[in-house]
Amino acid sequence: MCIAKSDGSLAAAPPADKPQQQQSSQAKPSSSKRLLALACLLLLIAVITIVILLGLLASRSCDNGASESDGLQSRRSPKSLTRAVYLDESGKACQHQDIRLPKSLLPISYQLLVRPVLPSQGQKTSVNFGRVKMMLNCSRPTDAIIFHVGAGIRISDLTVTAAQRLDEVSRQRCPSLDLLYIRVSRQCTTGELLNVSLSFEREIEGDKLDGFYMAKYKDKNRALRYMASTHMEPPEMKATFDLEVIRDWRYKSLFNMPLARTVPDTRCSHLTNQSGCHRDIFQTSVVMSTYLVAYAVLPMDYVSLQKVVKTSRGSIQVGIWAPSSSQNQLDFAMSVTEKVLPYFEDLFNLSYPLPKLDMIGVPQFAAGAMENWGLIIYRFSTLLYDPNYTTTIDKQTIAEVISHEIAHQWFGNIVTMKWWDELWLNEAFAVFTQYIGVDAFKPGWSMMDRCYVEFVASALQTDSLLHSHPIIVPGLSDPNEIESMFDDISYFKGSALIRMLDAVIGRRTLKRGLIIYLNRFPCRNAASSDLFAAFSEVRWIRFLENRTYGS
Ligand SMILES: *[C@@H]1O[C@H](CO)[C@@H](O)[C@H](O)[C@H]1NC(C)=O
Ligand SMILES: *[C@@H]1O[C@H](CO)[C@@H](O)[C@H](O)[C@H]1NC(C)=O
Ligand SMILES: *[C@@H]1O[C@H](CO)[C@@H](O)[C@H](O)[C@H]1NC(C)=O
Ligand SMILES: *[C@@H]1O[C@H](CO)[C@@H](O)[C@H](O)[C@H]1NC(C)=O
Ligand SMILES: *[C@@H]1O[C@H](CO)[C@@H](O)[C@H](O)[C@H]1NC(C)=O
Ligand SMILES: *[C@@H]1O[C@H](CO)[C@@H](O)[C@H](O)[C@H]1NC(C)=O
Ligand SMILES: [Zn+2]
């Protein structure tokens, strides 16, 4: 699959265009790795995105409480919309009028170097400098290179290189779609590799909780400290990511993947003594979607509770991070994680593919939590548990949010929806399996009995409103429309539907269908029809289907 653990537990994925019958006649083991790598690449649905961005979907909510009501305002039927023409910075029509990128160039890898300059005490502004190099594979001849660049990012030193010469002819920036459109002097040839490099610079803002942002908190001595973390929300595409972070000795950095090594650097412009300047180099990521890329730069005051969690398939290094003043509030999160993570591996018959899982509590965060692969970010209130102060209901919420985010490591991270119109494939499954996970953690809490009051009822309520919408809304393209998908319908009506399915076909059959679905599309994108096809392969459902249609 996406790589990492080689315990052979990930079944080879058949090419998507093959009819999905029995999977037994696979490629031989020797060639299956190549086949897998290929399958991963072929299926990238090319939304090429620079990693440092993007206020696009800022109010994405990942716990079941937060900001659900935001989604309720602007529901219209997309079909009835007459679309505006998107304009560039100078008022001309954008040459590419769609937030979805063409599939003519598919990203293979991103190499990212960042140098966040966080403010020293008293000083307000801070800037994130960096450079990104994207390797793109030409799948259809085109002379247009199009990718996302978030508003507020200044770019410079843009170069496009290929084996044969190719020059930039014109450039257009479309802030309304967060797009950069580059026309080059000739069409690429199929299979040709293009390297696009650019430098970027963006103010790190504390009040806008998107892109790479800064949060502050008071430490034990009540001094103001700064940390920065990401909350990135661009649409789908999959590639590998390499990250290097230049930081001074007062910070440490975290990424989706473990640190490979730290070397001395001399580019800490704010330091007079460069011997305190370091560059953290991280391991190359698995093939993943950009919206899951995350890194955090934490003050040394941050501490972690570390544990090697043993599962039936191996072991995972789990770290729970918080400021030192909250050091004694990390145990509960660890006890949930060490139970739920191995439980989900067995439930889905699929290994957690990364060597580590870090969870960070941050002071200011747009959603309840975000499921970045291997680096889940929480608000303090959804991670930290203090037996002396936390109420019982909050304790349950913490367990649910953690279980939800861990469920996303499969639903969303390993198998990702093709496009945001099928968000329920991520969110509804994460909501439903969050209950299954907490139920395994604390059977005495009777989690499955709480589903009705906790999400079915709110789904019914929202669904009774005029602006309700189907669970799947085909044809979504406007960023605001996408944002409004993060609502009760995707989360709760979707999970109510899965709950009904669970009740009708039984947990064992549900589980078998999910195993087929998840194991068929590792590190790829799937649609609802793929899910239904997986369920249809479980015999019981065929029987049910025949009954339903009266045959
Ligand atoms: C789980 O996966 C293994 C191979 O990785 C397979 O042999 C086994 O049958 C699977 N179990 C279920 C319940 O699908
Ligand atoms: C580029 O894509 C083509 C198919 O379009 C594939 O055969 C080739 O292996 C890809 N190149 C790389 C380096 O992934
Ligand atoms: C593109 O980048 C890759 C990896 O950094 C490098 O190996 C390759 O030589 C570059 N190709 C061109 C044409 O610059
Ligand atoms: C720079 O910092 C190092 C330790 O980080 C210290 O040993 C050295 O003396 C410092 N140099 C100056 C000029 O302050
Ligand atoms: C809870 O309060 C007791 C008594 O004040 C104290 O000993 C204990 O350390 C506190 N527990 C935590 C986790 O803060
Ligand atoms: C369902 O109906 C189809 C077509 O009539 C038939 O081929 C299939 O065997 C039936 N499945 C079951 C489980 O009865
Ligand atoms: Zn979620």
From TrEMBL:
InterPro entries: Aminopeptidase_N-like_N, Aminopeptidase_N-like_N_sf, M1_APN-typ, Peptidase_M1, Peptidase_M1_aminopeptidases, Peptidase_M1_dom, Peptidase_M4/M1_CTD_sf. Residues 332-538 form the Peptidase M1 membrane alanine aminopeptidase domain. It holds the Pfam family Peptidase_M1. GO terms for cellular component: cytoplasm; extracellular space; membrane. One of its GO terms (biological process) is proteolysis. It comes from the Eukaryota. This is Peptidase_M1 domain-containing protein.
